[in-house]
Amino acid sequence: IHRFFPKRSPLAHIPGPPSSSFIYGNLTQLLLPHTYGTFEFSWQTTFGGLYRIKGPFSSDRLVISDPAALKAVMSDTQTWKRSDQQQYSVDMLIGKKAVFYIEGEEHKRVRNVMNAAFAPVVIRGLPPVFKGIAEKIANRWEDMLVSGAKLDASGAMDIYPSLHDATLDAVGEGAMGYEFHSLENSDSELGASHRNIIALSGVRSPFHILVDAIVPYISPTLLSLALKLPTPAFKVLQKNKELSKAVSSELIASQQEIVRIGAEGRRDVTYALVKANASSKSGHQMSDEEMAQQIPSLMIAGQDTTGNTLSWAIYRLASSPELQEKIRAEVIEACESSPGGDISLNTIEGMVWLNAFLKETLRLHPGLPMSDRIASTDAVIPVSQPITTSTGEKITEVRVPKGTHVHVATASANRLEYVWGPDAHEFKPERWIEPSKWAGNRSASNFGPYANLSTFFGGARVCIGWRFAVTELQILFTELVRRFRFALPPPETSPELQVRMSVAVNMIPVIKSGKPSLPVIVEAI
Ligand code: HEM
Question: ipTM of this model?
Answer without folding.
Answer: 0.99
